[in-house]
Specification:
With about 90 residues, the chain is mainly α. Helices cover about 35% and strands about 0% of the residues. The chain has helices at about 15-20, 40-55, 80-94.
């Protein structure tokens, strides 16, 4: 796990300037050949997301996918649609 941009600085991760200034992007590696989170990825993601939610007092409704703010299908290989992500979030993150 790497932090490329400090939390108090703006990263250019969402293709939306306003959203970039108000959010923290988490990048996950996936591909057509690897269409699910590895156990290590999921563990790191859960730890990091929970830490950020606690540190910034964020509700689960603020944890969203890239495609929710940008014209992309990212991360299609990890969650095929928003419903799949919401199920994962409800059962694993929250």
């Amino acid at each position: 796990m790497y932090q490329l941009v400090p939390d108090n600085q703006t990263a250019w991760h969402s293709r939306d300037k306003r959203m970039n200034q108000q959010s923290i992007g988490i990048e996950l590696v996936a591909s057509e050949a690897m269409q699910k989170l590895t156990l290590a990825q999921e563990s790191a993601l859960l730890t990091l997301a929970r830490f950020l939610m606690d540190a910034y007092d964020l509700p689960g409704s603020n944890v969203i996918l890239h495609r929710a703010v940008s014209a992309t299908d990212c991360p299609r290989w990890l969650w095929e649609d928003d419903a799949a992500f919401e199920r994962w979030k409800a059962t694993r993150l929250l």
